[in-house]
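Entry 14. Ran structure prediction on the chain below.
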Amino acid sequence: MFAEIIINKDAKQLNKVFDYIVPKQFEKEIRIGARVSVSFAKNKKAINGFVVALKSNSEFANKEIISIENNYLTEKDIKLAELMARRYFCNVSECIKLMLPAGTKEKEKKIKRVSLKLKDVEKDTHHKLNAEQQIAFNRVNEAVQKNINKEFLLYGVTGSGKTEVYLQLLDNILKKEKSAIVLVPEISLTPQIINRFIARFGENEVAVLHSKLTTGQRFDAWHKVHSGEAKIVIGARSAIFAPARNLGLVIIDEEHDSSYKSDMTPRFNAKEIARYLCRQNNAPLLLGSATPDLNTFYRANLNMGERVAEDVDPCIGYT
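Output, C-alpha cells:
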C-alpha cells in the first residue's frame, strides 16, 4: 500500500503530493486525513504531512512512513481543503491546518492539564414567539426536519428577537441528535451572548471557539466537539471548521459583517464554506442581520418574486 502525502510546509513548491510506502504495521490504521511523520529531502529530523490519498501502486515511493501522529481529519476534510486551495489560491496544507485543534501544528506532546470549574449559568427556557417570529421559525424548521439544503435570510432590527428563533431551532437540532454551528462576529462574541446559549442548553452541549481563548481552551473545545459531547458550536469565523458531527444547521448572525472574510493566509470567506458544508450535509443555512449584505438581500428578493437564485429561500420581514 502507498500513500499520497502533502508535506506540512507553506512553501509553494511543496503544494503537491509525494508518494510514501505504508509499512505493514500501519495498513489497518492509516486512512485519508491522517497526520503522519515522514523523512523528507535532506532534513535530518522527521517532519509532518497529511495523507490525501491511498493507492496500491506507485512508481515514485522509496521511503516509508515513520509513524502515524493522529487521525483527527476525515476524507471530507481533505476534499474541502483541496477545494479551498483551488478557490483561494493557497496551499492545501494551509487549509488543512484550519481544521486541526489548536496546539497541534508541531509534533504532539503529552501534558498534564487542570481547569477551573466555571460558575453553572442560571437555566433559561423557551419564550413564546410572536406571530412574525413563528412564521420565520416554521419556515426554517421545516427544512431542518426534512433535511433540506436551503438558504434563509432572517431580516430583523437589533432587539427584534432573532436570537430566540435561533435558540428554538437549535433545540430541535438537539432533539434530532444532530449538531449545529453558530457564527457571530468576533466583536459580538461577548460573555452575555455565550451565557445565553449555555443557559438554554447547558455547558456540556455548547463549545465555544474564538481567538481570545488560550490554546488549551481551544484544544479542549475542539475535542469536545470532535468527541460528540458538544453538539452546538458557537464562535467566530474559524469555528466553521469545527468537527461537528452530523451537521443539521449553520447559523451566521450579523451575516453582513466583513470579519467573516479572513485577511490572513489562507484567505477564505466563512459564508462560502458554510454553504459548501450545508450542501454536503443536506442542511439549511440561516443568515441573520438587521442590515443584510446587498448580495444576500438581492438574492433573497429574487426568490420572493418566485425566481430561483441559488436555492435561496428567505424569511424576509421584521421578526
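The CA atoms of residues 40 and 47 lie 7 Å apart. Will compare against last week's run tomorrow.
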